[in-house]
Design goal:
Structural class of chain C: mainly alpha
CATH class of the largest domain in chain C: Alpha Beta
Largest sheet of chain C: 2 strands, parallel
CATH superfamily of the largest domain in chain C: Nitrile hydratase alpha /Thiocyanate hydrolase gamma
Distance between the termini of chain B: 45 Å
Structural class of chain B: alpha+beta
Mean pLDDT of chain C: 95
Number of helices of chain C: 11
CATH topology of the largest domain in chain C: Nitrile Hydratase, Chain A
Low-confidence stretches of chain C: 1-7
Mean pLDDT of chain B: 97
Chains: A mainly alpha, B alpha+beta, C mainly alpha
Strand content of chain B: 25-35%
Strand order of the largest sheet of chain B: 4-3-2-1-5
Order of helices and strands of chain B: HEEHEHEE
Low-confidence stretches of chain B: none
Largest interface: A-C, 49 and 54 residues
Oligomer: heterotrimer
Radius of gyration of chain C: 20 Å
Largest sheet of chain B: 5 strands, antiparallel
Radius of gyration of chain B: 17 Å
Shape of chain B: elongated
Chain lengths: 103, 117, 202
């Protein structure tokens, strides 16, 4: 699809921002989301092409405003619901209960 | 499929999951051929970027046979095996007079992304 | 539930979403959190650009190895024990006096994990992906690499399942250095093509 991900040759994106001694993961959740690629892949929930296409289907503004591992998280939330592994209601309830437990 | 356990991690990491397919598929092109990237605009998944579509390049290497991502994204499994070629596009072909001097792009294109030029 | 982190900041919405998914999949028996611990540990400590530097240093000191590396990247890299996820099918491209190679992935973030580890944020960023193919010399300049127009710049867009590693030029003044010493001069960026190998100290 002719999505925002297809960036080759676009202009005015600004300077390339580099970070010295960048850690592999900036937040603990990034590592968890990284690992879930492998666990979900091993379960057969998606292949790499489906994974990439789920990122491409993000809205362009959201794609640009969210970080790399948020794209991955978006894939799981999208594909696992589409494939009937989880329901959106289940996910919403779990987030609510985790938030309550954390208060 | 069995759930991934810590014991399985080193093996999975070291082996990976190549998209190369062990299939007898005749190549449609050969090294040295001049090809034009197709002007396709599917709503589905493709790995043919817009900046290459409609442009003319030259095949420099045949990487062998791989699953075709446009099909595999729909089927969920390695599908539609075909040859993948390293194709060289001159900067001027891609960017006209705004191209960097003495520059080019090498990109990997499947049989279904190209036509003879 | 007890906080399992040492800081007081509330978890972000994103962290909560990630936790919710991991918890749900674990409850359904579709995920073993210990596998994720092992994956994080692997990619934090065992997989990184030191691996690629070993490959480069070997190629600089062993011409037979270099020939194999350029002919069959995957096989030659596996000789040193590096293989697997996102390095299943490797191509190594050599910088020379006449050619400078630069690797990118305009469509996403494809990168040779077994030799370079996980990609830095800038490699995955919109500015790099967008500009690397249309203005590679400008990108190189931004990274402090100024090339004469006599040097051909080849940009490798990793759009399919081949993964690319640049074999940088061996710096001058390194005659007689050991393979280990040479590996210390090989930076991550020199293997992406946005940098050069370091000159020896002194």
């Amino acid at each position: 699809m002719n999505g925002i991900h297809d960036m080759g040759g676009m202009q005015c994106m600004g300077p390339i921002v580099r970070e010295e001694n960048e850690p592999r993961f900036h937040e603990e959740w990034e590592g968890r989301v990284f690992g879930m690629f492998f666990t979900n892949f091993a379960e057969g929930h998606f292949n790499v092409d489906m994974f990439r296409h789920a990122i491409e289907r993000m809205g362009p503004a959201e794609y640009l405003e969210t970080s790399y591992y948020e794209h991955w998280l978006h894939v799981y939330e999208t594909v696992l619901v589409e494939r009937g592994i989880l329901t959106q209601a289940e996910i919403d309830e779990k987030i609510a209960s985790l938030r309550q437990a954390g208060d | 499929m069995p759930t991934l356990t810590p014991e399985m991690v080193p093996g999975l990491v070291a082996a990976g999951a190549s998209c190369r397919m062990d299939a007898e598929v005749a190549p449609k092109f050969k090294v040295g051929d001049t090809v034009r990237a197709r002007d396709i605009n599917p709503l589905s998944h493709t790995r043919l970027p817009r900046y290459i579509r409609g442009r003319t390049g030259r095949i420099v290497h045949d990487h062998g046979v791989f699953a075709f991502p446009d099909t595999s994204a729909e089927s969920g499994t390695h599908s539609d095996p075909q040859h993948v070629y390293s194709v060289r596009f001159e900067g001027s072909e891609l960017w006209g007079s705004h191209a960097n001097a003495n520059s080019c792009v090498y990109i990997d294109l499947f049989d279904d992304y190209i036509d003879p030029a | 539930m007890a906080h399992d982190h040492g800081h007081n900041a509330p978890p972000s919405d994103t962290a909560m979403r990630a936790k919710a998914l991991e918890t749900l999949l674990t409850e359904k028996g579709l995920l073993d959190p210990a596998a994720i611990d092992a994956l994080v540990e692997t990619y934090e400590t065992r997989v990184g650009p030191r691996n690629g530097a070993r490959v480069v240093a070997r190629a600089w000191t062993d011409s037979d190895y270099k020939a194999r590396l350029l002919e069959d990247g995957t096989g030659a890299i596996a000789e040193l024990g590096f293989s697997g996820v996102q390095g299943e099918d490797m191509v190594v491209v050599e910088n020379t006096d006449d050619v400078h190679n630069l690797v990118t992935c305009t469509l996403c973030s494809c990168y040779p994990w077994p030799t370079l580890g996980l990609p830095p944020i800038w490699f995955k960023s919109a500015p790099y992906r967008a500009r690397s193919v249309i203005d590679p010399r400008g990108v190189l300049r931004e990274f402090g690499v100024e090339l004469s127009e006599d040097v051909e710049v080849r940009v490798w867009d990793s759009n399919a399942e081949l993964r690319y590693l640049v074999l940088p030029q061996r710096p001058a003044g390194t005659e007689g250095m050991s393979e280990d010493e040479l590996a210390g001069l090989v930076t991550r960026d020199s293997m992406i093509g946005t940098g050069l190998a370091q000159a020896p100290a002194g």
